[in-house]
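Journal club prep — side note

Before the paper discussion, L.F. wants everyone to see what a predicted structure for a comparable chain looks like in token form. Sequence:
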Amino acid sequence: MALHRFHLGEPTLAMARRQLLAIAQELHTRGWVANHDGNVTLRLPGEHLLATPTAMSKRALTENDLIVLDARDRVLQGGRRPFSEIKLHRAIYAVRPDVRAVVHTHAPNATALAVAGVAIEPKMLAEAVVSLGAEIPLLPYRFPQSAEQIAQLQEAARIHDALTLGNHGVLAWGDDLEQAYLRAELLEHLAAIQLRAMQIGRVTTLPAPDLVRLLDARKKAGLGPEARSKG
């Protein structure tokens, strides 16, 4: 395929650009990214990706700044360069064929916990268990985009839908851009609650029998690895 000849279909690609731009700008509005931090991708047919570019504030992005990458991460559309963390997005897509979008942020509360070596605890709220399961992994620090980091990310991504990276930030993924964004939002919300609970005293979790019922509800909602294995 020639590098200048990718066509998803103008109405569909235009809509995808609008949606991805809205999500990227929201990351800046919410204070989850600063400077050139964070990135968003959407999987297109043929393992192409629509992506935010490197070296641009999410505040200043326009639809024309978004880029389309081929399966080898060469730029097919757009005049800007891909971000270096594209390998993390590709690692998730490689082990999760159901995933269509990935969001990466440095949201302050979730990232603060990751820097402190503390995992976000979903078992403190019933809704969080249904949405994200009984565990949100905190992956230990590895050199960015190293083989070690990719391997541990892929192992976690097979089971989970969001996580935090030690000394780094948040990764969340989903069926579409909205779901990936909402999962990133939930991680930051949970992290804020957890930090306040830690300041007051301690974090208490739900009773074990209730967790079993909540995880069953998660499965019935079509969420989690057990539900995917039946799909």
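L.F.'s comment for the group: Strands lie at 39-44, 48-51, 67-69, 75-77, 101-105, 138-139, 162-165, 169-174. Keep this in mind when we get to the figures.
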